[in-house]
Structures are given as structure tokens and as C-alpha cells.
Amino acid sequence: MSLAAGARGSTDAALVSVGVLSWCVGRGLKPLGHLAAEIAAIGETNLASRLTADDAPGELSQIITRLNDLLARLEAAFAREKGLTADVAHELRTPLAGLRSTLEVSLLKERAAERYREAMDKSLAICLQMQRMVENLLELARADASQLEVENESLDLVTLLRECWTAFAGRATERRLEVTLQLPESCPLATDRTKACLILNNIFDNAVTYANTGGKITIALHSENGQANLRVENTGSRIAETDAERVFDRFWRGDAARTADANERRYGLGLPLCRKLITLLGGSVSVSTTGGGTFAVSIILSP
Fold this sequence. Notes:
CATH class of the largest domain: Alpha Beta
Number of helices: 6
Radius of gyration: 31 Å
Strand order of the largest sheet: 2-4-5-7-6
Number of domains: 3
CATH topology of the largest domain: Heat Shock Protein 90
Largest sheet: 5 strands, mixed
Number of strands: 7
Order of helices and strands: HHHEHEEHEEHEE
Helix content: 40-55%
Shape: globular
CATH superfamily of the largest domain: Histidine kinase-like ATPase, C-terminal domain
């Protein structure tokens, strides 16, 4: 065999090898091209779509599975965002309509100063409730984004509890509620004062608002196994036992718990915010309701 013939043979063999290698690489990369096309076709309007792994090798199948898990989480997050937008719009519609109606009726004709004052008081009550809703939403958003910082300080939970309750004592008296405080002399605790106040305010507000007129509220605090145990219960609950845990769902109040009174209207954000803050402080919260109409919130915090 001549040198030229040998060279041609080697070249032919090399070309065949390159061809085979190119075919193998192309076949191996085909699933990647297919996967890239599927990913490119998915946007915010079709997050329910999932990637297929029919012709993918084992290693790529694992990646596709993880990507599908990510898509599922993104779909759920977008659904929550859309649901939140719809809920906010729905919840604001009623108070805004009430505010507009109050002002329009007041301007229909000249009225006595007392009637104008009544209209302004009613309008202010509606505005304050909407402000409370917005503030709670902002706190929830910060908590969701892990933007809340805990600034612990040494305090007496009994003293803090009494201070916070003062703001609700007047409303409790107006509604003829029998309030029982079962508190120790002191309960030392290292926690974030601002967040603890927000938690107590929301729980007290919930109890005073939903207790039946002339009903009872019991606030009990004790230490056990190095932990502070707080229980706030009220009579007059109309929440079914099976729905108890739903009070931690944002904007959920239950049809029986809704009220058209602007002064008492709530938006179902207080207890969800409480759970976020209590978890942030390293504690736990649970609720219970009985067929007899007693609703209770139980909180455990480490001193």
C-alpha cells in the first residue's frame, strides 16, 4: 500500500468517525433543544404548562422534574398575587361605597352642625378601618419578603398586656362585655415590644369585635415550662369548628362573622398577621372554637 493510499484511508476513517460523532452529539443534544423550546414557550399567562421528559436521558429528567417543581411554585405565587389583588379590590369596594354615600347624602341639602358631625364621624370610622387594612397588608408584605427585623428587649408581658388592653376597655364597656383578666404579678420576657403590641392589639380587637353583646372575654396568662402561655377567648363565636383554622387565611372571615356596620367592619387580616409575627418571634399560635360559641386564641412564647 502506498503512502498516499494509506493517507486517504486514514482521512476516510477520520471523516466517518467525525460523522458518527456528530450524529451522536446531535442526537444527544436533541432533548436539550426540545427542552429549550418548551421553556421559551412558557410565560406568565401559561404557567400551568409543564416540561416533558419523554425522550430525555436520566440526568436531564431530574433537571426537568426540578424545573416543573419550580413552575408549580411560580404558578401558586402568581395565583396568590392575583387572588390578593381581587380580594383587596373586593374588600375596599364596600367601605368606599359607604364613604361616598355618607358624603353625598350630607351634601344633598343644608343640615344642622350636629348632622354634619355625625357624617364626619362615620366617614372617619370608615377611613380608619381602611387605614388599618392597608397597614396590616404592608406588615404582611414585609413579613412575606423577610424584611422584618426583630429587636428584642427585656419587658414584663403583664405590664405590656395591661397597657395594650387599655385601648379596648372603652369599646368593651360600650358593648357590655364582662372582661376577666387572669394574670400573674409579672411575666418577664425578652421580645420585640412593637411586634408584641401589634399582636396583642389585633387579638384584643378580634375578641371585642366578635364577642356577642353582653358576652364575656377572658384573658389568661401563665408561665409553664419556661414559656409564656397566653389565651384570649370570647363568647359569641359563629365560626364552625371545621373552619377554625381558616381564620389564618387572609381576608377570610366567614359569612356569619361579617358585619355591615362600618364601625365594626374587619378585613380578615389581623390573625394572619399575628401568626406571621408570632412565628417571627419564635412562638406558636393556635385557635379553637366550640359549638357553644366560644372562640379562643392560644399563644406560646419563650421568655
